[in-house]
Amino acid sequence: MLIGIPKEIKNNEFRVGATPSGVKELVRRGHRVVVERFAGAGSGFADEEYEKAGATMAIGPAEVYGQAEMIIKVKEPVEPEYALCREGQLLFTFFHLAPDKPLTDAMINAGSICIAYETVEKADGQLPLLRPMSEVAGRLSIQEGAKYLERPFGGQGILLGGVPGVPPATVVIVGGGTVGTQAAWMAAGMKADVWMYDKDLDRLNYLSEIMPPNVKTVYSDELSLEHAYEHADLVIGAVLVHGAKAPKLLLRDHLKTMKRGSVIVDVAIDQGGFAETSRPTTHADPVYEVDGVVHYCVANMPGAVARTSTLALTNATIRYALEIADKGERACLGNPELTPGLNIYRGKITYRAIAEGFGYEYVPAREVLG
Ligand SMILES: NC(=O)c1ccc[n+]([C@@H]2O[C@H](COP(=O)([O-])OP(=O)(O)OC[C@H]3O[C@@H](n4cnc5c(N)ncnc54)[C@H](O)[C@@H]3O)[C@@H](O)[C@H]2O)c1
Fold first, then answer.
1. Which residue's CA lies nearest to atom 7 of ligand 1?
2. Distance 86 CA to ligand 1 centre (A)
């Protein structure tokens, strides 16, 4: 198969769809790979490394999309890329369609075959391709939150860990999955007082066994969250309902009860955000304030640490990419982990939560692949 790796063009997105070693594996399996010039530069991979791995280089995106049967990238296609996506072309990338009707409509109209990293799912419910990026975003959320708590960045001027004689900051993490857990490790390591909220009791049990004493686990309901927001210095939004829009758990009214200069890092913004007042921001302009509360809502957080993220992403995606390259769309039938990854197939929505969210017809993946 001819595989294309375009340069990402989303604001400040420095990741790339595959490392040179990922390309080498594809080439070794007998596939041809075309990489857009400078695609890896933001992650520290030179064109020569891709050429050495067996890729041919293309001058611009039109050359990549125009000839490739399968595109491997990182972020969802943005508007200038919509017209480049072709009928029957396999697109293997993050999509986050549920909160994005223009993108969903564009992909339906393009007739492309959209396999979304974030809904590839293992039998035990784990999301193996979201996971590495969630690990990065979880850890980064504390780094960013700590920065915006600093006075020059608009925060209250609080040090996350406090110092002897001055209490540490209170970090509230809503959602105890991958993002939440990684955030908790980081915040706990910085000696903050951490409260983690989840609805899944088994998960809370597990977390309370593995987390250090400065992390408390709490069942997530309306009252417990209200109480948490009143005391929080930093709130991390880390909830996920697979494939669907994020539930709104931090409402406009809650902001009035929060401390001025406290910070919300809404990691779940790529699924629409868990705070009512969240709207997507970019690395170029990452924060804004509502009722004196700083909102950080960057939808592609791992892009800021592109080298780490690209390496972690390729480690996870490459075995699925190889399978799709070998078998084409049939890979989504053969491998049950890839079946839920298929979101749109030649104009039909094949993921129930996305179809229902927009009131569109849902056609099961197994039916379209026949
Ligand atoms: N902004 C970014 O750059 C970026 C990067 C990576 C991941 N994400 C997003 O972060 C979010 C979390 O991802 P994840 O990998 O940790 O997901 P996950 O599935 O591992 O964890 C989500 C957790 O949320 C919990 N949850 C669901 N509903 C809840 C509720 N009402 N109250 C409390 N907890 C609830 C679940 O029980 C689960 O433990 C997703 O939206 C993901 O797309 C964003």
1. 134
2. 32
